[in-house]
Every structure is written in structure tokens, then in C-alpha cells.
């Protein structure tokens, strides 16, 4: 009896209010296109295609043993609960090849049940102050490719293709750890960089990728001394004299000189959806002009870029009408998404990744000429 009591006690102790450290999430799905934004511990905003967004007030509890948490709340006028079950496991949205860190199951107040994925919300927590352009720390800007990691065999590190990378940009850190994509923040004080725990996708990969990734994540955390010289970055723990991580500056990614075919784009309702069957969305950047196909019409717009920042002007499109179901609506959503772009990057797989100011993805695209 005492053993059962102890076991029950441990389970009950694990079902606790979610800690403030848990990341804010935006959960979403397709067919229908819906989203639940969990951007504050006590608030969830439900968005459905057939209704205005509704805010619910409630709270979440966690079951640590199952890596799950459940959020439950009511609208201002009362009524049935909105229930969101969140499981920390790899999730594929079915519309792109992006892996998300959380599986979502949502029970709506009207009895409907939805399934989808969650991404870590951007722009919901105070952002670290970015250094002024003339005082930007030297580790900021380039994509750094890992060349040495203490405790990891050089052969295992060299086997990671296309390589373990990190990029520091205005207080945001993006990395590829050998298997998973990582995102987080950082702050710089003199020659020290402080990196809180990073969030990321949760894929499982065969050795040596997971061995390298585990060591990389452990090393790229806390407060580290950094030094940059001759296109080489070293990161050294404060309590040590030898660097743990050594990087070399990678060649800069190319935006121009390619035709990009879109795998998924933001439909304006917190969801990245793939193009309709039978349609192709493309874009090509050259000499300050971006042009391509929007699924029915061709389009053209101006653009300017500065390192990872990208501004695209209002697109002008031809005026052909296509009668396929949803084709014209898709065109409107795609062009609106394109105009919202503020940053660009090419990830470790060679995919073009555009984002808007609030951190939501605009689109992902692969090179069509490869």
C-alpha cells in the first residue's frame, strides 16, 4: 500500500502548473486551417477560418513523466472549455518537410476535434537588445561551421553533412546540430556570450549524428568567452583555458542566381501550407527585382536586402483568371505573404527560408534548377 501511495504521490507531484520557462507556442493545422496561439500562460487565442479569433482564459498543467501538458480554459462569456493537449514529440505538418517540436490535439467548445503541430512562438518574450551596427560583436553575422568540438572524434564530426553550423544575428541564434535545427537567443557582454537553453526540432538520427548533436548542445550553452580572428570563432567556458568549440566562417549563402520553387507558404492564418495540386509557385531574385509564378499569374516586385534582412515591395501580377478551386485565393495569400518578408536565410539543406517581423515563416523553397 505504501508503495502505491508513493507512486501516486510522484505522479501527482508531476502534474503541476507549467513553469514560466516553458516556451510560448503557436499550434496550427490544415483542413480546416486553424491555429491556437499560447503566447501567455493564462491566455489562448483560437483562430478558425469561419469565425473571428476568440481569446480563452485558463491555465496549463504538466505531466513530466509523459512529456505532456494540457491547457484548459473558457471564453469571457463562459461556456464549454477549450482543451489543448500538447505532447513534446516530433511533428510533421503534412504540408512541408519542416519538423516541429510539439504535437497538438485540440478539443473545441463546439465538440470538434483538431490535430496539428506547434512551433515555438517568436516575438512573445522580451528580445535582447541588438548592438548598434558600428559596435556589433564580431561573432555576429556569418554562418559559422563547426570544425572542432572537444570530446568528439574529428571523423564523426566530418561525417555530418553538410556540417554543424551556428549563426548569431541581432540577439537570435540559429543552429544545425547534426540532426535537428535549433533556435534561441543570446546576449553579449564584452568578450562573453550568454546562451540560454535552445529550442528545436526533435528528430532522431542514427550515429554519429546524435552523438555529435548531444555534445554540441551541451557545449553551446551558458556563458562562454569568444574570440574571432582570421575567419575563426572560438568559444571557451569561463572556467577553462582551452576552447570547447572552434568554428570557421562558411561561404555566404546566395539568394540570387537561382529559381526557387515553393514547398510551403504562410496562408495568413498562422499555417504554412503547400501549394495546391496542379499549381507551382516560384520566385527568382536578380538585380533588385524578384519575379516568378503565383499559381495562376506571373508577378514581379522590387526588393532590397542587407545581409539577412530582406524587403519586398508590393507585387504586380498579370490579370489572368484561373477557375481551379482555390487557385485565385492561393495567389492572393502567397503574394501577401511574400510582401511581409523581413529576413531570409538558406538552411543547411539548401532551402530558402523567409520570415516576417513577428518570426512567423513566410515560405520555404528549394532550388528548382538543381
Would you mind describing this structure in some detail?
The relative contact order is 0.11. The strands form 3 sheets. The protein has a 10-stranded antiparallel beta sheet. Strands 20, 21, 22, 23, 24, 25, 26, 27, 28 and 29 form a 10-stranded antiparallel beta sheet that branches. An 8-stranded antiparallel barrel has the order 2-3-4-5-6-7-8-9. It is 11% helix and 47% strand. By secondary structure, the chain is mainly beta. It has 4 helices and 29 strands. It folds into 3 domains: 109 residues; 113 residues, Beta Barrel (Lipocalin); 109 residues, Beta Barrel (Lipocalin). The chain starts with a helix and ends with a strand. Strand 14 and strand 15 form a beta hairpin.
Keywords:
4 helices, 370 residues, disordered N terminus, 47% strand, Lipocalin, mainly beta
| Helical residue percent band | 10-25%
* Strand percent estimate: over 45%
Lateral strand order in the biggest sheet = 14-15-17-18-19-10-11-12-13-16
**Termini separation:** 66 Å
Regions with little confidence, pLDDT below 50 for 5+ residues:
1-21, 123-134
CATH class of the largest domain: Mainly Beta
The helix-and-strand class reads mainly beta
Sketch the major β-sheet: 10 strands, antiparallel
Summarize model confidence as the mean pLDDT: 84
CATH architecture group name of the largest domain: Beta Barrel
CATH topology of the largest domain: Lipocalin
